[in-house]
Design a protein that fits this description.
The chain is α/β, with parallel strands linked by helices. It has one domain (about 5-265): TIM Barrel (Alpha-Beta Barrel). About 35% of the residues lie in helices and about 15% in strands. The chain binds iron/sulfur cluster (SF4). The site of iron/sulfur cluster (SF4) has 11 residues, from loops.
């Protein structure tokens, strides 16, 4: 599932560490499990990412300026640790969210991971943050069969040229992503668009994404969840890639969101 280069190619740029079976899964931010004390548990299977988004807060991808290694976690170790964490939390309404300091869509054991998570007693939802472009329709079908319930889609514009610029990858094709979204919806996977708003760069794109999300009629599963969750751009204090824009205050961001919500009748 690696598009935009092979893992061997990234190995030419920097070391790729396969996390050994039995390695503790809590405490390392680059891989494993993050529990923030809610009913959502974060699972981080890999740091690999073929894109180099201009605002990436974790400075991922081939153009990373501060990474010396990438990690690929061991799926069985990850699942065993997750099972323990879910049991420890003692609740039956757990959402497991697959994301991390890279693109989980390129994790080589993704289907097995999703299937394994779904089998854990107490897990009700399996969701994943992804840019989606790396899958073929058949691979999407496998993810649906394995039990993926929702995709939180990272998509910052529908404009193909701007999408290439923001993603830092001339081969990134946002039109293909739109097609894959429709296929995911047909397969019963819910999709929520979650763009990062970069003021002065993709302002009108927020409206375009909302219009598109509403036109599909399926994002957010027809009103069950908001179809679009706009994220505020926050330059990372250390290490992340920074974009030269005037950063909105939380107050400004709140006002803009309220106006978008009113104009476009978002939930
Ligand atoms: S923002 Fe996400 S997709 Fe973009 S470079 Fe960073 S990890 Fe990769």
């Amino acid at each position: 599932m690696w598009r935009g280069g092979s893992i061997n190619e990234i190995e030419r740029i920097r070391e790729v560490i396969r996390v050994e079976r039995g390695t503790p899964q809590i405490g390392a931010l680059a891989f494993g499990i993050v529990d923030r004390g809610t009913n959502i548990i974060e699972v981080r299977p890999t740091t690999l990412c073929p894109l180099s988004c201009i605002y990436c807060s974790v400075n991922a991808g081939p153009r990373s300026t501060n990474r010396w290694a990438e990690f690929i976690d061991d799926p069985e170790t990850l699942l065993m640790a997750l099972d323990e964490v879910v049991r420890f939390k003692g609740t039956r309404d757990i959402e497991v969210h697959i994301d991390g300091m890279g693109e989980p869509g390129v994790y080589p054991y993704l289907v097995d991971l999703i299937r394994g998570i779904k089998e854990i007693d107490g897990v009700s939802v399996v969701s994943m943050q992804t840019r989606l472009y790396m899958f073929t329709p058949e691979e999407l079908r496998e993810l649906a069969r394995a039990g993926l319930d929702r995709i939180n889609l990272s998509i910052d514009t529908l404009n193909p040229g701007l999408a290439k610029k923001i993603s830092g990858a001339p081969w990134y094709d946002v039109n293909r992503v739109k097609e894959l979204v429709m296929q995911a919806l047909e397969l019963g996977i819910n999709v929520i668009a979650s763009p990062v708003w970069l003021p002065g760069i993709n302002d009108y794109d927020m409206v375009e994404i909302i219009k598109w999300a509403k036109e599909t009629g399926g994002l957010g599963r027809g009103g069950e969840l908001p179809p679009v969750l706009i994220q505020k751009y926050i330059p990372h204090k250390r290490g992340g890639r920074k974009v030269r824009v005037r950063v909105m205050t939380w107050r400004e961001f709140g006002i803009e969101l309220r106006s978008l919500r009113m104009n476009w009748a978002l939930n």
